[in-house]
Amino acid sequence: MKIKIFFAFLLTLLITSSCGEYNKILKSTDYELKYTYAKKYFDEKKYGKASTLLEELVPIFKGTSHAEESLFLLAQSYFYNKDYTTATQYYKAYCNTYPKGDYTELSRYNAAYGLYLDSPDVRLDQTNTYKSMQEFQTFLELYPQSDKVQLAQEYLFEMQEKLALKELMACRLYFNLGNYMGNNYESCVVTAREAIKTYPYSKYLEEYQVLILRSRYELANQSINERKPERYRDVIDEQYNYLNMFPEGKYKKEAERYHKQALKAIGQNTDNLSTSTEETK
């Protein structure tokens, strides 16, 4: 018990001593000393203390030999403390001030990477995702020979897929809403077509296309009689589009079923359906 009390007392003493030291440095007007401690705290991974000191020192050091390094360390402190938004602001400030500085390439990359790490769940607003993509594009344009190019490209593609998934979720929602409070099937078609144009290499491409086909079928099936022939022809067109894009797609049987029902609805013979389907391959 006495040993435990002794160690608890020792720990309290160390913490108090450490806090006392930090408070003295905060109150000091010796900026060189403050900078020494800011770098010391950074090396010790005490990024909160480091950033607090550097916030005061960066404007004071403007035009001095410490100006460039102190601004970069401030950005790094926020980055490692996982305040990526603030870190990005300081990285960009560094790049604007020192476009050919010692840390410019890393600052460009970390600005993009921090926003990538701060990119929220796909169901939420994706402003940071778009910003990160813009920063990575800038990085790739400025440093095409960087050893981080492959990573930057991978993160870019990952975020594109994230945005593609967000569009797919919107398409699914429109389809599920159907005719509730408006023509949501048409909204599904429009959204899916735009997504196909925007993300032509996405893994969600097939699902976009089948949602277009399903929406066309539901529009035709639920139309007034005068509109049915035209809309069933749209179903036939979309079935061909689907099979041309995905001749062995996982929704092939579903697509052929819509095709057969559409042909029947407009009074065309379905006996040669299997033959015509083979010809589209």
From TrEMBL:
The keyword Membrane applies. Keywords: Cell outer membrane, Membrane, Signal. Pfam families: YfiO. Residues 1-20 form the signal peptide. Residues 35-181 form the Outer membrane lipoprotein BamD-like domain. The keyword Iron does not apply. This is Outer membrane protein assembly factor BamD. It comes from Dysgonomonas capnocytophagoides. The lineage of its organism: Bacteria, Pseudomonadati, Bacteroidota, Bacteroidia, Bacteroidales. The gene is bamD.
